[in-house]
Amino acid sequence: MAISRRLLGLGASAALIFAACGTGTASTAPTTGTPATGGPASAAPGTEAPSAAAVNWIACVAFDTGGLGDKGFNDLAMKGLNDAKALGFTTFFSEAKGSTDYANNIQSLVDKGCQSIVTVGFLQADATKAAVAANPDIAFAQVDTAWNACGPDFVCGNADDTPQPANFTGLDYQVDQSSMLAGYLAASFTKTGKIGTYAGQAFPGTTRFMDGLYAGIQYFNQQKNPATPVKLIGWDASQQDPTKTATLVGGSGGNDTWSNPTKGKQFAQTFLDNGVDIVHPVAGGTGNGTIETMHNAGKYAIGVDTDQYISIGPPTNGALLTSSQKAIDVSVLDFFKSSSQGNLGGKDYVGTLANNGVLLSPFHDYDSQISQATKDELAALKDAIVGGSVKVCSFIGAPADAAARGIPGC
Amino acid sequence: MKRVGPLLRRILVPVLSVLTALLLGGVVIILTDFDNLQKIGTDPLGTLGGAVQGVLNAYGAMLAGAFGDPNRIITALQTGNAADIARAIRPLTETLVSTTPLIFVGLAVSISFRAGMFNIGGDGQLMIGALAATASAIALNGVIPAWLILIATIAIATLAGAAWGFVPGFLKARTGAHEVITTIMLNYIASLFVFFILTTSPALRAAGSTTPVSKQLSSIVDVPNLINLPTIRLDFGFVVALLMAVAVSWLLFRTTKGFELRAAGFSSTAARYAGMSAGGSMMLAMSLSGGLAGMAGGFLVIGTVGQLSLDLSGGIGFNAIALALLAGLRPSGVVVSALLFGALTQGGKRMGIDTGIPFDLLLFIMALVIMFVAAPGLIRSIWRVRVAKPAPEIAQVSSESAGTV
Predict the structure, then answer these.
(1) CB contact, 8 Å: B353 with chain A?
(2) Looking at CA atoms only, how far is residue B307 from chain A in angstroms?
């Protein structure tokens, strides 16, 4: 008897669950079915779309493992997606839990009817390339990537050149331009004449910040010709390969490189011991430790990727003079907009000061301490960079070396 | 009827655990749907309806994500369009793709637990197997035919995983070093070793690339797919996983060595008294365990994923511990539990995409399942199930091993 009663209970609850799930499937089936079978042209979002001015387009983002919630890079891409949603786009996103998920998640978004897909994180590069080739009528973009037209050997004009697919857009940011402004500001603000910088690892995505900072300081020295030129410690951009003498966190490339505030505090202390009073850390969460130590010492820091004065919050953000920002959210939104108008890609997006793809954050607490003269000089420098009369690459060694570090133009 | 009783009793707690966890997951879905909850003052009935609808949508998406839509599958099969069929059956096949490594590592964990060894090192053994498979596939490229590379890479991955598993077994047998500590530490050593090799060996990476990811191996060797359709990744690794379940079952319950392993697990002192080598059993169990995990890594890099990267395992080793306990350490149970976890994982991703509910809810549900399975008394009292039989075997194994920690 006991068994049969148990069986009955089990059956009843199972029936309940299955019944529940059954209706759920039925209600979700139409929304998933229509776009998939109808193809991109007729893939109308459901009538239940929240916004009045619904856009007839499905925009999606495929995130990497554990990226969301970083208050920087990934959350900026998420903001771009949410902004698209507010404009009436239908939006979806996926999160990966391991490398087995990359191809699967992108394919799930394709099956979901996504018409524009942004992938985040360099580990997704191969899965993205495969999806770009397999889905020629879907627009793809990848954050912090430029299509390598010259093939795996980086030499243009030979057999392995890879022409950019018509449905791929690399979202690339010339942060050296915004960091040049930051460097000029730091050089005019420093009391000790020494500025420090370091990166998690050295690749164009990080070294552009440091090269730009160097260029800004050099430009200041050239313009103002101070008795003792302002020095940058940690990155000697005049060398052919500055990584040999650079200050880098190193480590496994995972959390111990990019989310290691303890290491960041040690770096800050070393810089302080050397008389540095402004540090520009380029190392994600590791840099937050640096900002904290600089704050505790009553000194200054320059933020990275996003306006860290806002993302970090008080009290440690009191150290931040400004931040060198990448407008990932804006470019992701722009990509959605342009692809929804039929432009699937074929050309990389390059964020510059000219198109506000990179920018210098507001000075917040320090607004009153920075003289109007300096602000005017910064505005003039920005105009000069936008106009092309001042170039980052002319301050950082041989043109070919600059180009190899992702700073073209010389 | 007499045979139904014991089986039902055996699966009752796991089934009720899953059910309870799903119900509690539903509560969390309701409590985190702030948009819906905000209306509670003005429209309590609508809020209730919205809450129920939210849970139904979430679990409906999960079900559709795990198994696909039967109607669509039938329609697609009738039209015969390859792309439509692929799209319709992809959820189901991806569930089996997620299931495959879980079966391997779940079996690995079961063997070691049966022998009284807590192998927490599944992730590390999997990574070492994957590294060995990647390196050997690249080294053997062009030297021997592809089908031979396939067999060789899987064999080498298995041996490498076995060697990595042997180390804690040996340390335990010879020095008494506790395997929980050593296997956890070896996980870190394995992943940092893989990172070291990937960063310092350009031969493993794609030409010109500096990112710590191996080159694509699919052009060298690829495990043949079970269904030959675009975007379908289900391959023969799944079949091998099922065969391994049969093999492990036979080994544990039909051979002398298996009996010795289990005897060592029940009581190593008694096993030694009966003339069995306890140390030998430990080393054998850990090697077999590591070998199965290594095989999982091999099938991942030359099959499903096609390249080696640091986030390859994605926590399979830890999920496998959970599902092995859920399965009562039985190979048949491991297959069923792995299917359940595979379906939850796959369905959870679809739920995330469809409803925006983070995948972490799935981790929450899985953790609850384990908690309930580990506490059968709790489940019995929640569902008012009368105890017909004293504590099941799992409880004995875990309490005994817990005593040695």
Answers:
(1) yes
(2) 9
Which option is the CATH number for A175-326+371-404: 3.40.50.2300, 3.40.50.300, 3.40.50.720, 1.10.238.10? 3.40.50.2300
What is the C-alpha separation between B121 and A14, in angstroms, rounded?
Answer: 36
Name the H helices within A190-301: 204-224, 255-258, 261-273, 285-296
B19–A29 CB contact, under 8 Å = no
Question: B94-342 architecture in CATH?
Answer: Orthogonal Bundle (1.10)
* Residue of chain A minimizing CA distance to B301: A100
Query: Residues B192-225: pLDDT tens digits?
Result: 899 889 878 889 988 767 677 899 998 899 999 9
Interface contact flag, B349 A98, Cβ < 8 Å: no
Are A98 and B316 inside 8 Å of each other by CB? Answer: yes
pLDDT digits (tens, 9 = 90+) for A234-248: 998 888 878 778 888
Was domain A58-173 assigned CATH 3.40.50.720? no
List, in order, residues 6 or more apart from B93 with CB less than 8 Å away: B227, B232, B233, B234
**Structure token digits, residue B256:** 């002398």
How many Å lie between the alpha carbon of B89 and the closest alpha carbon of chain A? Answer: 11
Is B211's CB within 8 Å of A125's CB?
yes
Q: Give the CA radius of gyration of chain B.
A: 23
Residues of A in contact with B316 (CB under 8 A): 98
User: Mind listing the pLDDT tens digit for each residue in B260-288?
Assistant: 999 888 888 888 888 888 888 999 999 99
